[in-house]
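Tokens for Citrate synthase. Go.
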Amino acid sequence: MSVTKGLEGVVAATTTISSIIDDKLTYVGYDIDDLAENSSFEEIVFLLWHRRLPKKDELENLKKELAENAEIPDEVIQHFKTYPIDKVHPMAALRTAVSYLGLFDDEADLLDSDANYRKAIRLQAKMPTLVTAFSRIRKGLEPVAPRKDLSFAANFLYMLNGEDPDEIAVDAFNKALVLHADHEFNASTFTARVCVATLSDVYSGITSAIGALKGPLHGGANEQVMKMLTEIGSIENVESYIQRKLENKEKIMGFGHRVYRKGDPRAKHLKKMSEKLTTLTGERKWYDMSVKIEEIVTRQKNIPPNVDFYSASVYHSLGIDHDLFTPIFAVSRVSGWLAHILEQYDNNRLIRPRAEYIGPKKQEYVKLEDR
Ligand SMILES: CC(=O)SCCNC(=O)CCNC(=O)[C@H](O)C(C)(C)COP(=O)(O)OP(=O)(O)OC[C@H]1O[C@@H](n2cnc3c(N)ncnc32)[C@H](O)[C@@H]1OP(=O)(O)O
Ligand SMILES: O=C([O-])CC(=O)C(=O)O
């Protein structure tokens, strides 16, 4: 047996959902650059789940289904109110809430493909409501009910703040959702697939995926990037802060990737958005500091930024609390997780690799009283 640490380069299955080839990302063969410039997030959801772009009426129908399923049970709202609100990270709250939500879905344990598709709609529709309801409850505010006349992106911002978002914010948020929707066999998607490959249910798959996304080496990095930017504080401090980190062999959050070598194709879109939004808010320093960090890390380590780096200053500029950055990633990525879960069920085999045992062998058992 040969072991590849972290399964680097190991191809674990086939997929028709997304690909990363020669540092290019596609969803069902469509280049991420085209999708980022042109698509609504709802179109991406359709594309990932049906492997083709929707016609107008199909898109309208999906939007309607998402809008009609966006409300969450009152029990879930009341449940949030029992959480130790000032200690709980929103990703932990989301992980718990998705699991809890499953208890109220009569079809939770039905595994036929129609029931699974209906659950996919319900979960995708409810994720923004869960995140925004928790965010409001912990601030002592009542949750804002979803509206049926707003796009997916606009509805999120509306439910978060309780007021109509402006067009620039909606466009930026929509683009961020498009860019985060799927990414081949990343850690959280793989986790979801491993879970449902036991023929466990969709809610278990998504709950496991949220747990995996939460870690700072994966989706949790976007919050850590903003923490770093806040700690640095101003452009004059960038050089010494980053040098110190590199000398101490600490990782710079938002840099590096297991698959991309020349760079993450999503980062340039977020960088452009960061420049635009930070200029508009009069807080361009976050963008300028980020650019300087990028210069130093690429010059010294030749490690380019990933999707999490510039998304931090984008979300900050949209007025979003820093610990909601990763839940927002989940609001988008649940579309990819669901696509992969449905693909896994369609052609399932238990996922069960081997481990090479390197511990002691042929040990002789010694009775408790003789040890
Ligand atoms: C949505 C996402 O999940 S994107 C990734 C989000 N995560 C982050 O931004 C956290 C920071 N980045 C990292 O920790 C890593 O680059 C990962 C986890 C993304 C990829 O990890 P791996 O493929 O296992 O690479 P690994 O950690 O082995 O790094 C390889 C080398 O590059 C260095 N390196 C990798 N990333 C960084 C970084 N961000 N800062 C400094 N050095 C780094 C490592 O120290 C290592 O150097 P060495 O060979 O001298 O020991
Ligand atoms: O693919 C990965 O390893 C991580 C990543 O960029 C993502 O999930 O978007």
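Residues 13-215+322-346 form a domain with the Citrate Synthase; domain 1 fold (CATH 1.10.580.10).
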